[in-house]
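Handoff note, outgoing to incoming analyst
You'll be picking up this chain. Sequence as last confirmed:
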Amino acid sequence: MSIIFYHVFLWAYRLGIGLIAPWNKKAKSWLEGRKGLFDRMAAELGADSSQLAAEKYPVIWMHCASLGEFEQGRPVLERLRATSPESKVVISFFSPSGYKARKDYKGADHIFYLPLDSRQHARRFIDLVKPTLVIWIKYDYWYYFLVELRKRKIPTLLVSGIFRADQPFFKWWGRLHRYMLECFTHLFVQTEASRKLLATIGFTGNVSVSGDTRFDRVIEIAESRESLPAIEAFCGDATVVVAGSTWEEDEEELDHYANTHPDIRFVIAPHEIEEGRLKEVEQLFRNKIRYSELAASRGTGEAASQGFKGLRPGQPAPNVLIIDNIGMLSRLYQYATVAYVGGGFGDDGVHNVLEAAVYGRPVVFGPVIEKYIEAVELTELGGGIVIDSALEAESVFHRLLNNEEEYRQACEASRDYVYGKKGATDRIVRYIQENRLLTS
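Most recent structure output, in case you need it:
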């Protein structure tokens, strides 16, 4: 791709966002979040800028495309904050979903949207942030931002990078993309396969296989064991299927099994929770209740087994709980007997299987997993089970819930896989410390 085509892409992206914004909430949020961005940044960073100049505090800037990448970078950021408490932390997001979910995150001093890439935007953004160290999570490469960081000789690390042969970096026309990679001081990649691919285009000395920091993050969450009383009450002593990050295709694989097994509790956490989407989910399941209703029904502290408010005489108690909030999913999986992770029936592929596997549970998902090495590896080890249809889903659930030995082996495989991959955060932080990237 030439710089001319890159400009055409940026122009088309901005035009497309503007055209769909009137009826697309994400596009509208993308635009509104960037209105007056530099004025807000100047107002927020103004006091810090003079302080930083006088006292020379280091500034860590972490960029994430969205929420998943934030969670991926979070272990590194929090470790750096602990070892360098005098540092200031700035986080940027490209996606509205990531920004909205973490705009109040207490571990950062400032959180902003990243403006659309341009030479002027990159210079102004970096002038305001004045980063000492930049941490770029996984992907979301923007030419002018990366070039400007390189010109200013600001250490810039790619964390948890993953590379495939079909990406532009490895094509004859991918010179612009390769140049973006050249702007990184060091590339921390998840796999040996990624390291070997980068070596084919000349990246050798500044590439390390660190692993994926998501393993450290999910282990941290699991070991904190933060309880959810309303969920505990709903589940009781029943067998529980927790289905996370589901889309319509996923729910259609589950509804018959849930509707014909009232003794099993199902916790469904849709990937999107707009009202229209929640109503679609409700239509599929007979005996259901939303989390917000459940929480209200437990206002007096009654356990779910003691009954739900609002039930008609003779009406069965709900066996399907629909989660209508964001931020709870990683803790929900602790209550699962079997976990189901959505996305595997869509073009983009399965969502984060590690959040479920860390609790030592069998993880079931759809067939689109080829871009997600952790789902592939988990399946190969027996902790993950791929399904292609609702009939196969029911067969797998029945088998896991009635064959103790198969269930035990799947549980052990899941937990061992996740815990065997921990340590990426240590490797990255050690590099930063050994190379004194946060000291002037």
